[in-house]
């Protein structure tokens, strides 16, 4: 099987072109959508550990944390209203992504990115000015709409603009941007927590407007992808000129021919969400559900959302907990950058399997140590708290190398053009659904399962690593419009999509 996939990957060599400055600048601007997503993830975990914020909006949690010595360490932050603040963003994003699918298909990737930026701006303004819980949550909902549009369009934009042999690294810039957003949010939280008067949380929430403004203004100048242009127009010369511009060469006929074929098929599909259910798209449909599901049950958003709360649970003070969240965020950025550099050489499967093993081992050790050393009351010694912090950093490093960036890369590159926007919407919706479920239930699970929560996530990591080994083919270096070949040559999926395998291969060779 591996040999067959290697031959397929070499099919991309007849495409000419290079990684141009034009593509790099366009992708850097589009990836700002990831910065906002990461900022929204990181900022919520920080402000929900700030005492003035809790005192104003979640007074019962504040009382339990400060005054109730009978409450278990694991239960002090257990509040459905508190988790609703965090997870409301993802409910809104879940519904918004299906609207974004139609916008992305009919009006282009650029239009969805622009709409995402505008909603981010509105949400940031409302959150920073919030005077009651309703304003606070409605601001999160607007941010969620922005995330729904941006996460639907940005990964597609990056994968379509990038040359085949650089697609992994370019697309991984989205997750790198998410990591940068999380780190920036943690740094801002660490600074604003020290503001006298207790209004620092307003600065944290309102600062989302800065990257939102950059994305909204920058989207006005973004070029549309050749794939989107040909999907929405019959002007092949216009598409050819854009291809020549983004590839930095006049010799783009081979890629243009593949785009024309993909476009002709795409224009026969009127109901992509209905068509994606067909047997020939079964592998892509399974991956569009499985990959984002597995990405969430790694438990990573437990760290992203609630790192300061988690570190306070093990006995760190408010400032130390926020600083520890900064450290884990920095580790995530460094390892995602490493993934960008090696993903197109090592491949997707190898990184996912290696990262899965690393996450599984560290989660088991963290669960064991917390079970042995942290009781229901009191805290860990500074030495053991430091050990837990180091282990969580190793876990975050495993995610940053693998499931973080590749959870967005793989779904964005496996769908044929005719169902691409629908497939990406399913991916984003599943991601947001399980982000919501994990975010909404984590504090309750932490209260009831205690240290066992890490064992639960560890079991899921073991399952998903086995799934990758058995069912995910390698997709590195293969042109995005020829991706269907990996399924027809895979030991399992060829049984489902391979009925016309010989006929399709003969047509391609002809």
TrEMBL record:
GO cellular component: membrane
Molecular function via GO: monosaccharide transmembrane transporter activity; symporter activity
PROSITE patterns linked: MFS, SUGAR_TRANSPORT_1, SUGAR_TRANSPORT_2
Regions that span the bilayer: 22-43, 81-100, 112-131, 137-158, 170-188, 200-222, 285-309, 321-343, 350-372, 384-410, 422-445, 451-472
Keyword terms: Membrane, Sugar transport, Symport, Transmembrane, Transmembrane helix, Transport
Subcellular location: Membrane
Pfam families: Sugar_tr (PF00083)
Gene3D superfamilies: MFS general substrate transporter like domains
Membrane-related topology note: Multi-pass membrane protein
SUPFAM superfamilies: MFS general substrate transporter
All residue ranges annotated as the Major facilitator superfamily (MFS) profile domain in the record: 26-476
Main location (coarse class): membrane
Family classification: Belongs to the major facilitator superfamily. Sugar transporter (TC 2.A.1.1) family.
Listed name of the protein: Major facilitator superfamily (MFS) profile domain-containing protein
Organism for this UniProt entry: Anisodus acutangulus
Organism lineage string: Eukaryota, Viridiplantae, Streptophyta, Embryophyta, Tracheophyta
């Amino acid at each position: 099987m591996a040999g067959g996939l290697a031959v397929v990957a070499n099919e991309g060599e007849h495409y000419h072109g290079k990684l141009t400055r034009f593509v790099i600048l366009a992708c850097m601007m589009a990836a700002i959508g990831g910065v906002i997503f990461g900022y929204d993830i990181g900022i919520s975990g920080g402000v929900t550990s700030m005492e003035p914020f809790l005192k104003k909006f979640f007074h019962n949690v504040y009382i339990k944390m400060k005054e109730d010595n009978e409450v278990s360490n694991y239960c002090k932050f257990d509040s459905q209203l508190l988790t609703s603040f965090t997870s409301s963003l993802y409910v809104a994003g879940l519904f918004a992504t299906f609207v974004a699918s139609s916008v992305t298909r009919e009006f282009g990737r650029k239009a969805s990115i622009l709409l995402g930026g505008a909603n981010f701006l509105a949400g940031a303004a409302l959150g920073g000015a919030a005077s009651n819980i309703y304003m606070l949550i409605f601001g999160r909902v607007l941010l969620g709409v922005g995330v729904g549009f941006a996460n639907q369009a940005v990964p597609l934009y990056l994968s379509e603009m990038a040359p085949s042999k650089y697609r992994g690294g370019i697309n991984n810039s989205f997750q790198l941007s998410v990591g940068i957003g999380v780190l920036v949010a943690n740094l801002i939280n660490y600074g604003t927590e020290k503001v006298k008067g207790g209004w620092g949380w307003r600065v944290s929430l309102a600062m989302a407007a800065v990257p939102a403004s950059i994305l909204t203004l920058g989207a006005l100048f973004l070029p549309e992808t050749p794939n989107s242009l040909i999907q929405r127009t019959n002007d092949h010369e216009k598409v050819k000129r854009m291809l020549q511009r983004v590839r930095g060469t006049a010799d783009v006929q081979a890629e243009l021919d593949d785009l024309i074929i993909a476009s002709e098929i795409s224009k026969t599909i009127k109901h992509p969400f209905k068509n994606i259910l067909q047997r020939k798209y079964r592998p892509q449909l399974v991956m569009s559900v499985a990959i984002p599901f597995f990405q969430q049950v790694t438990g990573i958003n437990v760290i992203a959302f609630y790192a300061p709360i988690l570190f306070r649970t093990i006995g760190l003070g408010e400032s130390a907990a926020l600083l520890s969240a900064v450290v884990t965020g920095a580790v995530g950025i460094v390892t995602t950058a490493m993934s960008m550099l090696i993903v197109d050489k090592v491949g997707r499967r190898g990184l996912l399997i290696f990262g899965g093993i690393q996450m599984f081992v560290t989660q088991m050790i963290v669960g064991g140590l917390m079970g042995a050393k942290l009781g229901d009351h009191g805290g860990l010694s500074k030495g053991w708290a430091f050990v837990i912090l180091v282990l969580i950093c190793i876990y975050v490093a495993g995610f940053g190398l693998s499931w973080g960036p590749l959870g967005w890369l793989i779904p964005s590159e496996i769908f044929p053009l005719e169902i691409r926007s629908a497939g990406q919407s399913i991916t984003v919706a599943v991601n947001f659904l399980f982000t919501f479920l994990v975010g909404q239930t984590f504090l309750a699970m932490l209260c009831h399962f205690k240290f066992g929560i890490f064992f639960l996530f560890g079991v899921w990591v073991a399952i998903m690593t086995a799934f990758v080994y058995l069912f995910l083919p390698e997709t590195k270096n293969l042109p995005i419009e020829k991706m269907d070949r990996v399924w027809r040559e895979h030991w399992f999926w060829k049984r489902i999509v391979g009925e016309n395998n010989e006929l399709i291969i003969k047509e391609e060779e002809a």
